[in-house]
Design goal:
Blueprint: E1 8-13, E2 16-20, H1 30-39, E3 44-50, E4 55-60, H2 67-84, H3 86-140, H4 143-148, H5 150-169, H6 171-178, H7 186-203
Antiparallel strand pairs: 1-2, 2-4, 3-4
């Protein structure tokens, strides 16, 4: 559809017309050009361009320029703008700006997600290392056990690390799911209790 056909006459009285214009003519910069060119037509003495409403109001002297002549000249200048590429350029600029904005928002979101993931992983590593230090200290406080039965001491230490790793791995599920609905996750709780039973049993003296 040509741009002239998109211009709809909304009001007409003697010496006054009002058109509904398409969005391409209401763009910043283009609207000023249209208003200036219409006002330059002989017989036109007032032009009001309502950009937000997409309307233009033209007051003219019909003794100088009658309605058919006015319409012809308005459509000619709109046609010139369309052929010159001014409307297309403005639309493409707007699309390009929107695309760039979307890219920036997407990049910021990706950066934020990456940063948040790195922070979470850093906290997890710090907590795991801290817990491992505590277990190591407890092991070193029992040098007799290490000397008497180094194999058992090493196995106990590795079991502690394994339990720590499993708790850390399932911590979110434990706090957010298992504790809130223990019956639903009864098998998980049974497995956990059995794991602690085996751990305590392995520590009992023979």
């Amino acid at each position: 559809m040509s741009i002239q056909k998109q211009c709809v006459l909304r009001h007409r009285t003697e010496g006054h017309v009002r058109f509904q214009l398409p969005a391409s003519l209401c763009q910043k910069g283009v609207a000023d050009i249209v208003a200036a060119k219409v006002k330059a037509i002989d017989g036109v003495y007032r032009v009001n361009f309502y950009v937000r409403q997409g309307k233009i109001s033209i007051r003219f002297q019909e003794t100088v320029c009658d309605f058919p002549q006015l319409i012809k000249q308005v459509f000619e200048l709109i046609n010139e703008l369309e052929k010159s590429g001014a409307l297309v350029i403005q639309i493409e600029k707007k699309r390009s700006a929107i695309a760039k904005l979307g890219t920036k928002v997407s990049e910021k979101a990706d950066n934020f997600a990456t940063t948040r993931w790195l922070k979470a992983k850093t906290i997890e590593i710090k907590e795991t290392l801290q817990a491992a230090k505590i277990i190591t200290k407890l092991t070193l406080k029992k040098p007799n056990a290490l000397i008497k039965d180094p194999e058992k001491a090493i196995i106990d230490f590795l079991n502690d690390i394994l339990v720590l790793f499993l708790i850390r791995l399932h911590w979110d599920h434990i706090t957010k799911l298992w504790l809130l609905n223990p019956f639903k996750y009864r098998y998980e709780w049974l497995a956990t209790l059995y794991m602690f039973f085996l751990l305590i049993r392995s520590r009992r003296p023979k």
